[in-house]
Amino acid sequence: MFIPRLLRAAALDPRAYEGIGEQPEDMFRALGVVMVVGIAFSVGVRSLPGIDFGDTPPLSAVLVSLSTVMTGWLVYTAIIYVLGTLVFRGKAGFRQILRTLGIAYGPGVVIVLGAIPSAGGFFFFIGLVWILPSALFAVKSVQGFDWVRTFIVTAVGWVVALAILPGYLLLGATAGSPA
After folding, report:
1. Cβ atoms within 10 Å, residue 165
2. pTM here?
3. Burial 26-42 (b: 16+ CB within 10 A, else e)
4. Is the residue at 27 inside a domain?
5. Over the stretch 18-54, which tens digit does the pLDDT of each residue have?
């Protein structure tokens, strides 16, 4: 039942988000999705220019990537909560947004294809961008907004989360490197 939900979310089916947040185990499922995307990120990010883990042990590189993606998920959720629930009077609480947005991260597994030589940057980009429309459907579903409010809240959160990720990743990569 969970894998079909992820496939529907990746296919941008709004029904994928129905009922998320009502079950406590949804938090573990969302966390699992974000962790898988974090591992995919650790594989795909290595092909990007300017990202060099050097002699960093592979496990450290994975942990840096996981923490980067998870921090992005939390920042993205916080922005959607503040703008959506507190400013635009949406109907979802922080945990419900966190769960729903975690499922919306599913298409990010495409980022693993970033490891393909000469085509990796394209797949990395597609994976990051694919999360945006998936998140649009998730936020619209959970907050009950029209498309304009949904786009404002979701796009602002996505841009801010993406803006902080490179610095966080580089900080973690350099912190894990031997001196």
Report:
1. 18
2. 0.86
3. bbebbeebbbbbbbbbb
4. no
5. 877 667 788 999 999 999 999 998 888 877 766 666 6
